[in-house]
Design goal:
The complex is a heterodimer of chains A (about 180) and B (about 280). In chain A, the strands form two sheets. Chain A has a six-stranded mixed β-sheet. In chain A, strands 2-4-9-10-11 form a five-stranded mixed β-sheet, with no helix packed on it. Chain A has a single domain (about 10-175), classed as 60s Ribosomal Protein L30, Chain: A (2-Layer Sandwich). Chain A has three helices and eleven strands, in the order ββββββααβαββββ. In chain A, a hairpin with a 4-residue loop joins strand 5 (about 40-50) and strand 6 (about 55-60). The two termini of chain A are about 25 Å apart. By secondary structure, chain A is of the alpha/beta class. By secondary structure, chain B is mainly alpha-helical. In chain B, about 65% of the residues lie in helices and about 0% in strands. In chain B, helix 2 packs antiparallel against helix 6 (about 80-95). Chain B is globular, with a radius of gyration of 18 Å. Classes of the chains: A alpha/beta (about 180), B mainly alpha (about 280). The interface of A and B includes residues 39, 61, 114, 115 and 146 of A.
Chain lengths: ~180, ~280
């Protein structure tokens, strides 16, 4: 896990790519966190407008019990361990649990009534279960459907943007 | 079959047949194959040889000493590893271009295919099956899209309508709009290129593997590998997740949904390790 504390020349953007099964947090107003390739994976952003700090998590699977060793090494791969790690990293930058705006994107689904193949659905269920346990709510979401997505968080403004496969324009998912 | 042949014949920009792969696949089944024969086949194509040596010498290949010629490469890395490298070089050449009719940008079909190939290898290895054929079939499973791409261009709205409102899968929408779909076109193309029958049937039925008699197992690996590549976000294009879930495949392969999650994890790690296969995203 990497925490961004980059000293920047004012006005210059610092672009960070968040890989599959990874997370980044920042309080650098010039930082733009982006994650690509959200299929059944879920991208989660949290942003505290007061602390002007936030982060982006790209998590792959719902449940870390499938591979506890991997979860210890890379908690961001799994929703249960990844979400906790995202919040913990953001607290380090002054964010507070009940002040953050939470956005979520991804969790695409196949045409599968049996649900056996829909990892996206299981990821989203794990996500909402954890939020419910902590009394947290979702500010904005773009989940499911037959597409893959790119998600971006701008630390300076808290704006969350989305790009959807097969479409060329970006959309704004949320403004903090 | 006339309609399929018509589609294939009408495409002017179809790449040349990857003869090197069909030849090498034939040798893979030969237990007493002579390394010299493999080297001769590959050396016939100087551009391929150069790319292959470059890949052998990349940091990801894990060789302690650089290799200077094909003989050395084959003896150090083994035929199976060299075969997969050739398949990757050939596959990238075939599948690298944008496919606008599908909403797929340059490099995206290649990333999807390479991810699926790694997933198929993960699955075949795990289930104790021969993995090179699964790797190749998954690498080439969407080759039919090269043929149908031009015919789908400008059809974004009808495709969306078919896959969304009417509840058809993408492949069913293709069939409705064009009278053919990319899997059967791909199978037909590989048959024309003299690929082995198992590979032809697998590509042909990669969306309904139980139909790939008697190659259902192999087709099952490739079906799952395609889904896994989508799960990992390597399935760009219009409505790319509009694929039917086939619970009977899990029964056929005797695996649980939890095991699919394990395959997703192993594939993601294999993609990271093989970062020389997948071009970095912008």
């Amino acid at each position: 896990m990497r925490t961004s504390c980059l000293k920047d020349v004012a006005g210059f953007d610092k672009r960070l790519v968040v890989g599959v099964g990874a997370l980044e947090v920042s309080n650098n107003p010039g930082a733009i966190l982006t994650t690509y390739s959200l299929g059944s994976c879920l991208g989660v952003t949290i942003y505290d407008p007061l602390a002007r700090a936030g982060g982006l998590l790209h998590t792959m699977l719902p449940d870390s019990t499938i591979n506890a060793a991997k979860a210890a090494e890379r908690p961001a791969m799994f929703m249960d361990t990844g979400l906790a790690a995202l919040f913990r990293a953001a607290y380090e930058l002054g964010a507070e649990k009940h002040r953050v705006h939470i956005c979520v994107a991804g969790g695409s689904q196949f045409m599968d009534d049996s649900g056996l193949f829909n990892i996206g659905q299981r990821n989203y269920k794990m996500f909402t279960d954890i939020l419910r346990q902590h009394g947290l709510v979702i500010a904005a979401r773009a989940v499911g459907g037959y597409v893959s997505r790119t998600m971006q968080l701008q630390i300076g403004t808290g704006e969350v943007r989305l790009k959807t496969s097969g479409q060329h324009s970006e959309t704004i998912l949320h403004r903090s | 079959m006339q309609i399929l042949d018509d589609y294939i014949n009408r495409v002017k920009t179809l790449p040349p047949a990857p003869r090197i792969l069909t030849e090498l696949l034939r040798l893979l089944n030969d237990t007493e194959v002579d390394a010299g024969r493999i080297v001769d086949l590959i050396a016939f194509d100087p551009a391929l040889t150069a790319k292959l040596l470059q890949r052998c010498n990349s940091a990801a290949s894990g060789l302690a000493e650089p290799v200077c010629d094909l003989h050395q490469a084959v003896s150090l890395m083994g035929f199976n590893e060299i075969y997969r490298m050739v398949a990757v070089v050939v596959g990238e050449g075939l599948l690298g271009a944008a496919q606008r009719g599908y909403g797929i940008d340059s490099g995206e079909l290649w990333q999807h295919s390479a991810t699926a190939a790694l997933a198929a290898k993960v699955i075949a290895d795990k289930l104790g099956a021969e993995s090179d054929l699964a790797f190749t079939a998954a690498l080439l499973h969407d080759i039919g899209k090269l043929v149908l791409n031009g015919f789908l261009e400008g059809s974004y709205e009808p495709v969306l309508k078919q896959t969304g409102a009417s509840g058809q899968s993408f492949i069913e929408a293709e069939k409705t709009l064009l009278g053919v779909e990319h899997a059967e076109v791909g199978g037909r193309l590989l048959a024309r290129w003299n690929f082995p029958e198992g590979l032809v049937q697998t590509v042909w039925h990669h969306h309904d593997p139980v139909e790939a008699h008697p190659y259902q197992q192999l087709a099952g690996y490739v079906y799952l590998a395609d889904l896994i590549a989508h799960c990992l976000g390597q399935g760009q294009g219009f409505q790319s997740f509009a694929i039917r879930g086939r619970p009977e495949v899990l029964e056929m392969l005797e695996i649980s949904p939890k095991e699919i999650e394990g395959f997703v994890l192993q594939t993601a790690l294999a993609v990271e390790e093989a970062n020389w296969i997948i071009p970095r995203l912008p």
